[in-house]
């Protein structure tokens, strides 16, 4: 190992404490309007932003990320690699669970073991820690993690994983977290009520240090963009995520609200399925005859579909400048982003020719699924893509459904394609590729979210090699090779990167986050 990889990350715990100093004394309540559906309180069940941001209030990770992506202490005060395959972690002293019992190293070992097998989970966090061989408590507040291979991105992975209590979670299932019975965390808030599809109610924990800024926090699920915007303008909601983009010009000049925004690490994409389930909707000819195998398994077909998407038109006319069109996984300037990949040209005539050369001169019919209650304008974007594809002979049935239905359809390969989005909180492409595109192997915890069943051995080797490479320069070069491979093969079809937006009522301001999470700790008084 090189010297820089043996240098301990000894960061002062005071940095963690200083991030959330409580405001003036007295009970203060906060109500937040969410765009996406919260599908579970179990922090290991489904790795999706709406779930993760709720979990962040109730539980804590070992390491946390700031709004701009820096790693800082949370439950861990220090972490360092002792050699290529061992990491030692020291826990913060004096941390207690909501029920008053002390946090111990056994809780950490339990959590990192539990998340690898959550019954019924559509996709959890196992792929983030697939290098782990063992986790052991070496003292009351010390943990040793042994990996099967070098794991230079382990701290970044641990920043996305919440620690749960062993005593509350030993025999608990996901429904026990949803009911609140097992939702015993170390976070600044305790769960008081969860109504699926409607709301999450939290109250300040008396055991958490530092104390939370707000006494009570209510997250209301408001999938209607117009309704979210109206509620914050009326003062009925304190903060909303993803206000209506059609109202942005008006909101900027309205003294009743304060806007905040930042470029997101999240990319929106079309995912063409490589395998379809036995009960899947097939791709058909225009007169309804099944096409087998699916045309989407043909790279030239995928390239034609990509060429037929007017990314700039979507960004300007539908999203009104609130996204950046892209042809790659990460925004420019991020670690491992490709510096030489332009936005793909919109070329419907070229796409027609390529489709005909691939054997589909008359096109075909297919269904594309999209969640209608998670990411704003999902369905509208897919409807626009459907119109674009119609110009090259591809007829699309746009199936906009609630997140729970969307996940079932996509994770069980019941539709030929889906429209999704993925964040890169590690600020590099490895976690996304490992979870979304590396071959689905549950026994190895790879491809946890590879619902498309994309599988290319050469690509797998590159990604796995990168995740084991300690030298940053070399790792970035390998990740770029892997990125070029999957973009050339169009294992997924990138469309745009998001710009995260929030609107707060007058007197409040929100610190924008690249990961798109909406956190109570980021809401402060002091705006106009």
Q: List low-confidence stretches.
A: 1-27
Shape: globular
**What share of the residues does DSSP label as strand, in percent?**
15-25%
Rounded radius of gyration (Å): 23 Å
- Helical/strand content category: alpha+beta
What kind of sheet is the major sheet? Answer: 11 strands, mixed
- How far the N terminus sits from the C terminus, by CA atoms, comes to 52 Å
Quote the average pLDDT. 91
Counted by DSSP, the helix tally is 17
Q: Using DSSP, what is the number of strands? A: 22
Work out the helicity level: 25-40%
Word description of this protein:
With 528 residues, the chain is of the alpha+beta class. The protein has helices spanning 3-6, 13-18, 49-58, 105-114, 154-158, 166-169, 174-179, 225-233, 248-252, 299-307, 311-318, 348-357, 378-390, 403-411, 430-436, 457-467, 472-489; strands at 9-10, 29-34, 60-61, 63-65, 71-73, 76-83, 86-91, 132-139, 142-147, 162-163, 189-195, 199-204, 216-221, 239-241, 257-272, 323-325, 364-371, 394-401, 417-422, 493-505, 508-510, 523-525. Strands 2, 11, 12, 13, 14, 15, 16, 17, 18, 19 and 20 form an 11-stranded mixed sheet that branches. Helix 10 runs antiparallel to helix 12 (348-357) and helix 16 (457-467) packs antiparallel against helix 17 (472-489). It is globular. 52% of the residues are buried. Residues 1-27 have low confidence and may be disordered.
Give a summary of the structure in a few sentences.
Helices cover 27% and strands 24% of the residues. By secondary structure, it is of the alpha+beta class.
